[in-house]
Amino acid sequence: MTTEAYFLSDIHLKNLDQPEAQILLGLLEDVGSRIQATHLFLVGDIFDFWLGGHEYFIRKFSPIVDHLRRIVACGVEVHYFEGNHDLYLRDFWQENLGIRVHPRACLFQLGDLRVRVEHGDLLDPADRGYRFLRRLLRTPVIEYAGSRLPGGLLARIGRVASRTSRRYTSQHKTISEKRARTTVRSHAQRAVHEEAFDLIVTGHVHVRDEYEFEVGGRKVRSVNLGSWADSPSAFRITDTRQEFIPLPLVLRKVKQHQ
Predict the structure, then answer these.
(1) What is the pLDDT of residue 258?
(2) Is 193 helix (H, G, I), strand (E, B) or coil?
(3) What is the pLDDT of residue 212?
(4) CATH number, domain at 218?
(5) Which of 50, 58, 222, 223 lies at 20 to 30 Å from 188 by C-alpha?
(6) Is the distance from CB of 33 to CB of 27 less than 8 angstroms?
(7) What is the DSSP letter of 99?
(8) pLDDT of 161-174, one tens digit each?
(9) What is the C-alpha separation between 163 and 150, in angstroms, rounded?
(10) Which domain holds residue 54?
């Protein structure tokens, strides 16, 4: 079977009026129809805040949810990696939509490639501030809030949580691109010794990066997806290519050939 996998991360959707939301909706509309994808990987922080399976979020982003439900029904394998802005996703996204949810790194076989995918919020072992915040956000109290608090209160909590998360992760997102790339690449070089892979795909650090290195004479590739705030794009893997795709461009090209 031919592989065509798409990877998206760090869109940080606050509402459907954002240009990024319209681009995402355009892509999702075509996946499973004009775009014959086999896999779709949502690599965390798709939303600026999503907690649990609260009806507030489901209603607010219902067009995105509906498209993803249809994509799964079309046979596309969809995976969602929890980020630092989207938490406790399993009950709704996996149990109700059939999207496979991952709270941590996971390995996949995509054609001839063994691919490790993770959001990337744990790529810096020295970032103690964020690691403390991550543990705090993954407590029973926060999980309880994700399904039971009123929507208006949850929205206010979301704004505070998003600001707090940005403050703790700002060292990655305001440091020089050189240092950010060093952090991403060092993580890839450590991770490949945990369990071998050909390619690692990460997000979280808002710097797009592609890097190749060797392990035991074998080439390994690291890709960090960057942020949609800079340039909306997807990373695509097929049986013959691995490449970043500017999303408005790919949507225009697909529709021109109909």
Answers:
(1) 45
(2) coil
(3) 97
(4) 3.60.21.10
(5) 50
(6) no
(7) P
(8) 666 655 555 444 44
(9) 20
(10) 4-256
Structure tokens at 63: 């067009």
pLDDT at site 123:
74
Structure tokens at 184: 């991403």
Top pLDDT among 197 and 55 is at: 197
Q: What is the pLDDT of residues 136-156, one digit of tens each?
A: 667 676 666 666 777 777 777
Torsions phi, psi for 78 (to 5 deg): -110, 135
- Helix (H) or strand (E) holding 247, with range, is helix 247-256
The position carrying tokens 């995918």 is 117
Q: Calculate Rg over the CA atoms of the chain.
A: 18
pTM, entire model: 0.86
Q: How confident is the model at residue 229 (pLDDT cuts 50, 70, 90)?
A: confident
Place of tokens 């959001």: 119
Q: Report the DSSP pairing between strands 100-102 and 77-81.
A: parallel
Query: Going by C-beta distance under 8 Å and a sequence separation of 6 or more, which residues neighbour residue 211?
Result: 181, 184, 185, 188, 221, 222, 223
Report how many domains make up the chain: 1
Contacts of 107 (CB under 8 A, 6+ apart): 114, 115, 116, 117, 195, 197
